[in-house]
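Re: [help] complex structure
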Amino acid sequence: MTDLTNPQPASAPRNQWLDVWDQFKSHRGALIGSVIFLLIIATVYVGPLIWRIDPQFLPQGRDFITLRDTRPIWVGLWDSSAKVNWAHPLGTDNLGRDTLARLMFGGQVSIAVGLTAMLLSLLLGTLVGVLAGFTRKLDGPLMRLTDLFLALPLLPLILVASLLFRESLSAAFGPEGGTFLLIVILIGITSWMPTARIVRGDVLALKEREFVLAARSIGTTNNKLILRHILPNVLSPIMVSATLGIATAIITESALSFLGFGFPPDFPTWGRLLNDGVDRLVSFPERSILPGVMISLTVLSVNYLGDGLRDALDPRIRGR
Amino acid sequence: MLTFTIRRLVLAVPTLLFISLVIFLLLELAPGDPMAQVPLTVPPEVKEKMREALGLGQPMHVRFWKWLVQFFWIEPQVLVDHYFGTTFSEGDLRVISWQTRSPVMDIVIQRLPQTLWVVGTAYVVGILIALPIGIYSAYRQYSWFDQAGTFISMVGFSVPPFFSGVLVIVIFSVNLGWFPSIYDTTLVVDDWESFRRQLLQMVMPVTVLALQITAQISRFMRASMLDNLNQDYVRTARAKGLGERTVVMVHVLRNSMIPVVTVIALGVPSIFGGAIITEQVFKVNGIGQLLIGAIQANDLPMVQTLTFIFAVLIVLFNLVADVLYGLLDPRIRYD
Amino acid sequence: MTRKAILLGAAAGMALASAATAERGSDGNVNIIYWQAPSILNPFLTGGTKDTEAASLILEPLARYDASGNLTTWLVDEIPTVENGGVAEDLTSITWKITPGIVWSDGTPFTAKDVKFTADYCMDPDGGCAQLTKFENVSDVEVIDDLTVKVNFSVPTPFPYGPFVGVENPILQAAQFADCTGARASECTEENFGPIGTGPFVVTDFRPNDVIQFAANENYRDPNKPAFATVTFKGGGDATAAGRAVMETGEFDYAWNLQLAPDVIAKMQEGGKGTPVAGFGPLVERIMLNQTNPSAELDADTRSTAKAPHPFLTDPAVYNAMSLAIDRPLLVEIGYGQAGKVSCNWVPAPEIFASTSMTCDTQDIEGAKKMLEDAGYVDTDGDGVRETPEGLPMKILYQTSTNAVRQDFQALIKQWWSEIGIDAELRNINASVFFGGDPGSPDTFQKFYADVEMYANTFSGTDPQSYLGNMICDKAPRPETQWQGENISRWCSDEYEALYAELGKTSDINKRAEIGKKLNDMAVQGGAMIPLVHRGRISAHSNTLGGVELNVWDSELWNIADWHRKTGS
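Output below.
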């Protein structure tokens, strides 16, 4: 009887986040995805400490001719006449710059831009979407605002923004920091609209569901309702937007830099390397394919990571 | 629902007017000069005269008013004249492009067929492929089909068309010689032979575009289906003894369509807007190419008109999506 | 006269020999691709090369430049000169005699009235004519009789071949454009899209910024020409795709202006379907040196204006060292290949105007370092960047338009400059902003908010007088001129100005050339710019297309009437 009056749990209640972690661990795709993602991060950020070639260094004089346009070493396997050089395992570009060093340096920029811009756009999109879907009064104005942003032509918008803010941002955060901020903000504020629309659509349906009604009837405040009940249920479209958003952000960055509103021309990023390589696609396919593979790998790994995270956060799946 | 639709349509008018004003101000503020493409050998005094001839000397509000009148009053008259042979618009100045000195709407109408053919087909093909892939991937989550679908769609989405387009041209036009690398906009389809040629020249641009569209929509479809497959009502439906097919294709699908409808509705205006890069790569010269060319040449009347039409479609399809939400989930109420 | 008869006979003989089938329209269709699409076919309302060249299939001038840059007769019998009495002794008028029997494509005769009309059309103050400079100092155009027209100048004009010569100002039909003068010029869509001309082709379908279809002109003066019955003129895309369509897939017969790296073109040529051809006009890729201070700390009225001279770029030791550090032959090899030559000159062509006094084809990093060292520019704080004697680090901003070759040049030159202790920060700007004259934008090449900038410039025709006039102090862009002006580097020299005034009074071609060369040397040695590469234009034609003669002084399609399909293909 004492047991009933004084219930003693067999063990301490498990932390919810431990459950989440357990579920995440058991998701094979998520594990592989996170390992690959961490590997990519390690390569681009730690790699340059080991592979100490300046990505912007051009060989001089005689070296220039011998070191430019070398192929990756594996090309030597089937084509013995190919110009390969063990000092540059992934080859060099048409000016003799080391491809491996450029890929690593470019990765730092692309991943940083991709992730931050994606987060900003998700944050904006989710905020607008939830507010519009949940609060009837705000729905009209916020959706008209979304329409406005969808309708604005991108290029003139970028021109105006860079005209207005580039110099002041550069002054405040240095030329590179300023450019980074400008790019991230530009991509963020021009790509949140689809997320907002999708989230709003889901929220509109969710808020009429029984469980929301139940939560409301026990006096849950609106804030809690959104955070506890609505948001977890719109997580999966947000995750999809996130993975697609990274790819878009990386490519948009290269378009901005190409137009001259991004990083300086000798500043490699994956998108720019991919773009620059297209002209020589037949002679030097690796110049576009390598950065292309890196972008795809990053997006794929983030996608699996997101899948795992979503499953882990879903109590219905976790219970099984 | 009908009152809601009508109210929204009425409200759309001030919204659109406001959007057109914002677009106009944005274009005014943007640095750029319609004389940018005139060679450096033409001296600045002459360029100044040319600017004046384009009407750039007038103050901003006068030009905005002129555009409003031309677009909302004169252009509809031209349309009426065209269909009924009347002469309402005779002598009135239409919206004139600075690049070509010809009416903007004429060029837009000239460009529509190729954009609708290529981008429209790609969109339809993309949706038709994406929906089954998304549904089946979710139903058999983590099967080899799902894994392959994930892999292809993510790679497909992360490879930009300026790369994939050139890649297919190099493979299929240069090396294999199967398809033409340059789209012939003058081709008139009037028999089987010309239809075959039209198909041939559409294959590559449609494939490249459809890949992106499929990737995007199938991901949303899959995610949304997954959310719903674990819901209690599915268990109830199964317990009721409903066939698996009915459960998935009727109950789950209907409830999963909301985000997908949003994404599709978001994409429809972009069919009209064309696909800028893909059109450029395959020389389709549709609306997308027209818009980017006009932006680069700072042809403001053209950019203003095109973006405005685009805005109308966006507002319209947003409304369509809202109406569809109500049909898909009758619990959603707007009033 | 006899010589002309012989030439005519020879030409006829050659025509007969070359192809027995040389009959109008016998060779079917020819496909031309311009990666910039023509927007309009009236050259007076556009300055764009793409538009004037497309129009040159239809509209023709009285005389034009041939492939080697010589004036050649087109709709007239001879080029008027002072010797043959066509140009007045006092250089104030020129009289053209039209070849009898020329008709417009609608069958009506081509007369002096059309010529006069064209001048009036362009000189109308409300028309916004893009070719107005061609009519500079023209007081009026007189019709003497149906086939004689006299152009009067308000001042003595030593080079009277501006009006009605070259691709930019052909003759319009008076009857067609009569209602399209002045402010109404841009309302005449039908006329602007389908001008009636005397050329070998007529427009059948014009789709702005997309494609033009032409058919042979039934009333063309040579009954056997053109050999092609129709022309498809596609526009749009990019240079790579255009080159590929001609040289690799063979879908097109002619691709214009392939601005591509030489290795890319060489690879395309391996496709075996076409051949690139290069021609050289006076186009020079150069680095302009800002003589004024572009520092962002200065206020808007002072920044990049003559009020604030540049802290070090005006020093001969600095700009000479910067020039010496550049390996021009390598730049040519990387960027232009057969379409480029090393140039130390601002005016590299025509031949007689090209100065030979300077050489610059060897790079000398050590020499450049020594030059800076001797002038007191030393690295005092050991960061690898030199400081001026005043202690200012030699850091410069180097901007140019977005273009793959230019970005390669930037990277190379930055590296070379860093070797001699000058640190360059690179920027690239979208061409439509960079070359646009928007006074509100900080990124235009006129505003020059950078220390050095790279672009290419040229002049039309063969006379560099007005081009040399670009370096007049008064033409510097500044706030008072809304940042318009051609003296981009804000270079200024009284000596130069005096000599330039003399050029305007000299008519003898050899003396003009002498003065021109001196002016060229003064500007380059005075540090207005660092010339890099004399750029040619490279276009490609299909191996089955005959008769192509690349002309950079006039329209590339100037002799399209002679193009034909090679037999046996």
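The mean pLDDT of chain A is 83.
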